[in-house]
Amino acid sequence: MFWYPPLLILVNALLPRPTQCALLERFEDLKRNDFDFVIIGGGTAGNTVANRLTENPNHHVLVLEAGGSNANAFVSMIPNFCARTLGSAIDWNYTAQTGPVMNRVVGLPRGFVLGGTSSMNCMAYTRGTREDWDRYAHVTNDAGWSWDNIQTYVRKNERFTPPADGHDTTGEFDPSVHSFDGINSVTLSGFRHQVATRVIQASKAMGNDSEFRFVLDMNSGEHLGIGFAQSTVLNGTRSSSATSYLGPQFINRPNLHVLLHAHVTRISSEETAHNGLTFTGVELSQDSGKTLHTVTASKEVILSAGSIATPQILMNSGIGDPNTLSNLGIRTLQRLPSVGRNLSEHLVLTLGWVVTANDTDSEAARNATLAAEQLRQWNETRTGPLVDAPDLDFGWVRLPKNASIFERVKDPSPGPNTAHIEIQFLVSIFPAEFRIIIPH
Ligand SMILES: Cc1cc2nc3c(=O)[nH]c(=O)nc-3n(C[C@H](O)[C@H](O)[C@H](O)COP(=O)(O)OP(=O)(O)OC[C@H]3O[C@@H](n4cnc5c(N)ncnc54)[C@H](O)[C@@H]3O)c2cc1C
């Protein structure tokens, strides 16, 4: 699907490997099989929880990840290569049959590697709006989810770092709404492209009354307008949950255990008259189900296998809709009909524009020497056009109040200060089937 420079494989072999000694490949190498917490899925959420739980040295925590190490996943490391992770060996390569409107089979990418989808996503750091979070608080009747209350955790997560080119970022973000001492790195573009600069210039020229006005920081709780992208990148390299929350300063904690290639089949349980149903451990396999292993969790099993595998594991464990489970020959332990239902996913529509700028990714796509030079620069200095995630600027806009769609559909936005449409300005290559070329 994507074009790879010929030097890629060679340079991959020369890349320095992060030292992650505590990552185990074989079940037999686990020093124990009884833990306080067992976390299913070493992805975005799973690794974050593993890091926080192992702050307490008395907690023995096991992370079970079906995929392999991120340290070998070259396409994952280079921010500009994010689209190349789609359909690669670190993608589960799920497909989905869409509903009646589109009626076709589409790819549904999800990370199959330590770090999960944070090892293959496009690194855009967007917090949502105050209205979004306050709606969560309202719907859940839990004030802990409100914008104000969630900021503690936003700040614990975020470590705002200088961009790869070290340029002065004054006027590109609002430092007062950011944290500089969290764990996951967030940064601004480290290689300013001509198109991205023009987008910002144009939005400033439109003035404050325009829907395309300049917004200094779209992560302040109010995002409408156009502004500089912020990305989870550190020194020109992807900052995933694997590189941050399981980074070198954490991975060697003696109470943190991470097993790779560990495919969880189900959560094991016991039912007693006294305690009712108790989930006691996890069953897994490393050889496609030929050998099953069990580990126990004395405190909690944390299921963080992503939006597809989480309900699958719940259903395998007897939790779900009794009709569906009995058709699959699974005994229902807990009736929860909504498990495995109501998934919705957003679509991306890519509009390609012909531009006069000469620093788009198209240049490297048609010039192997230039592509090899960009890769060499990234590899040696972590600078140049490959240091940035594809999104260079963002726009957040609303449909007009009287848009005809609202005659049929209730406005899904949580309030008048939250966008209906997210615009991402890229200079990257996307698969041809997504492109509509508009001549200049
Ligand atoms: C192509 C793409 C681009 C995206 N871009 C962005 C972006 O720019 N910014 C943004 O904020 N969000 C983005 N997202 C969304 C975001 O990455 C995800 O919402 C988030 O990473 C999901 O986190 P998670 O912990 O729920 O799941 P994951 O991070 O997917 O973690 C689940 C983990 O469970 C493992 N697993 C699954 N089944 C099993 C099993 N049976 N046994 C053991 N382990 C198992 C998986 O291998 C994986 O490691 C993007 C998503 C995609 C697909």
TrEMBL record:
Gene3D superfamilies: FAD/NAD(P)-binding domain (3.50.50.60), Glucose Oxidase, domain 3 (3.30.560.10). Residues 306-320 form the Glucose-methanol-choline oxidoreductase N-terminal domain. Its cofactor is FAD. FAD binds at residues 113, 117, 264. One of its GO terms (molecular function) is oxidoreductase activity, acting on CH-OH group of donors. Residues 1-21 form the signal peptide. Coiled coil: none annotated. Keywords: FAD, Flavoprotein, Signal. InterPro entries: FAD/NAD-bd_sf, GMC_OxRdtase, GMC_OxRdtase_N. SUPFAM superfamilies: FAD/NAD(P)-binding domain. It comes from the Eukaryota. Belongs to the GMC oxidoreductase family. This is Glucose-methanol-choline oxidoreductase N-terminal domain-containing protein.
